[in-house]
Amino acid sequence: MTLHDKLALPVGTTLDRFIMRKQEDFPYATGELSQLLRDIALAAKIVNREINRSGLIDIAGAYGNRNVQGEDQQKLDVIANIRFIRALRNGGEVCTIVSEEDEDMIQTGNVQGKYVVAIDPLDGSSNIDVNVSIGTIFSVYRRVSPTGTEGTEQDCLQTGTHQVAAGYVIYGSSTMLVYTTGNGVNGFTYEPSLGEFFLSHPHITSPQTGAIYSINEGLSNDFTEGVREFVAYCKQQNYSARYIGSLVADFHRNLLKGGIYMYPATRRAAKGKLRLMYECNALSFIVEQAGGKASNGQQRIMELQPQTLHERCPFFIGSTELVEKAEEFMAREYAELAEQK
Ligand SMILES: O=P(O)(O)OC[C@H]1O[C@](O)(COP(=O)(O)O)[C@@H](O)[C@@H]1O
Ligand SMILES: [Mg+2]
Ligand SMILES: [Mg+2]
């Protein structure tokens, strides 16, 4: 399919049709990844319905349990987790799931499944009950162990460069699904009355620079020197401070408008807060496919070798020039630390 044909794809193409057309690009494709993406879209529609009416029915508030991160689970965290796991299990393509809400790997029973999914079922939990945009984040890997057996930790702990697909759903003023399979980034808007996602943002590219910085400045007492100086630089440049407190929403805005989102290591949290497997890797794949950049302040996120399922890493993501600028300030900090040793 020529670029001209691709650009001729009418906006308003359904996600299903788009997936099918994309599959034609890969003559040896067997349709399993396409089916997996459809399973995720199905669960997203159901979760979207629950979110939209969460204020009306008794699914607001805390669930009463703590997850492996020590965070209070919200009812919607649990509902979203159940919905995505069920859709991926029933779809049959996924052998193992890594979820923010479960300490251990989840074996789906689909031993013939070729794929592993790492998922943050509900991102931005602190914003659930206050009608602020929240999301879902997912990464897809091809298993390395043979089919016919349960997935292993080795299947899950792959570097981000091994992702075959990644994406997020944003439940905001409209609900969108944005994803990549390594062939550019496309966004689809949900039309509830038709129950369909439609292509609304073809070939998303991120501006090389921007004038927005996103960081929780409430943590500034604990910022390290490099972060403190970069934030000061952003202010000197009269950049706008924007922080929603939902990673997906902050990332999505900066992806489209240009900007940088940061959740750095702080004096209290040496590895920051965000999780490599089901938050950072997926958004890094998306931003790189859109022409942006993602690092831990020093190294490319997607080259980090995960050691554990729920490990955290410092996160700097967005427009290339801004992330590189932040890395410059971080490099000075690391050099000073090295001199002090
Ligand atoms: O309240 P803080 O410390 O700024 O953290 C906000 C960040 O934490 C998160 O809520 C973590 O994700 P979960 O809600 O999935 O646990 C991000 O969405 C958000 O960017
Ligand atoms: Mg999250
Ligand atoms: Mg979450």
Automatic annotation (TrEMBL):
<feature type="binding site">
    <location>
        <begin position="123"/>
        <end position="126"/>
    </location>
    <ligand>
        <name>substrate</name>
    </ligand>
</feature>
<comment type="subunit">
    <text>Homotetramer.</text>
</comment>
<keyword id="KW-0119">Carbohydrate metabolism</keyword>
<feature type="binding site">
    <location>
        <position position="120"/>
    </location>
    <ligand>
        <name>Mg(2+) 2</name>
    </ligand>
</feature>
<feature type="binding site">
    <location>
        <position position="216"/>
    </location>
    <ligand>
        <name>substrate</name>
    </ligand>
</feature>
<keyword id="KW-0378">Hydrolase</keyword>
<comment type="similarity">
    <text>Belongs to the FBPase class 1 family.</text>
</comment>
<dbReference type="Pfam" id="PF18913">
    <property type="entry name" value="FBPase_C"/>
</dbReference>
<dbReference type="InterPro" id="IPR044015">
    <property type="entry name" value="FBPase_C_dom"/>
</dbReference>
<feature type="binding site">
    <location>
        <position position="273"/>
    </location>
    <ligand>
        <name>substrate</name>
    </ligand>
</feature>
<keyword id="KW-0479">Metal-binding</keyword>
<dbReference type="Pfam" id="PF00316">
    <property type="entry name" value="FBPase"/>
</dbReference>
<protein>
    <recommendedName>
        <fullName>Fructose-1,6-bisphosphatase class 1</fullName>
        <ecNumber>3.1.3.11</ecNumber>
    </recommendedName>
</protein>
<comment type="pathway">
    <text>Carbohydrate biosynthesis.</text>
</comment>
<feature type="binding site">
    <location>
        <position position="243"/>
    </location>
    <ligand>
        <name>substrate</name>
    </ligand>
</feature>
<dbReference type="GO" id="GO:0042132">
    <property type="term" value="F:fructose 1,6-bisphosphate 1-phosphatase activity"/>
</dbReference>
<feature type="binding site">
    <location>
        <position position="123"/>
    </location>
    <ligand>
        <name>Mg(2+) 2</name>
    </ligand>
</feature>
<keyword id="KW-0963">Cytoplasm</keyword>
<feature type="binding site">
    <location>
        <position position="279"/>
    </location>
    <ligand>
        <name>Mg(2+) 2</name>
    </ligand>
</feature>
<dbReference type="InterPro" id="IPR033391">
    <property type="entry name" value="FBPase_N"/>
</dbReference>
<feature type="binding site">
    <location>
        <position position="100"/>
    </location>
    <ligand>
        <name>Mg(2+) 1</name>
    </ligand>
</feature>
<feature type="binding site">
    <location>
        <position position="122"/>
    </location>
    <ligand>
        <name>Mg(2+) 1</name>
    </ligand>
</feature>
<keyword id="KW-0460">Magnesium</keyword>
<feature type="binding site">
    <location>
        <position position="120"/>
    </location>
    <ligand>
        <name>Mg(2+) 1</name>
    </ligand>
</feature>
<feature type="domain" description="Fructose-1-6-bisphosphatase class 1 C-terminal">
    <location>
        <begin position="207"/>
        <end position="330"/>
    </location>
</feature>
<dbReference type="InterPro" id="IPR000146">
    <property type="entry name" value="FBPase_class-1"/>
</dbReference>
<feature type="domain" description="Fructose-1-6-bisphosphatase class I N-terminal">
    <location>
        <begin position="14"/>
        <end position="202"/>
    </location>
</feature>
<dbReference type="InterPro" id="IPR028343">
    <property type="entry name" value="FBPtase"/>
</dbReference>
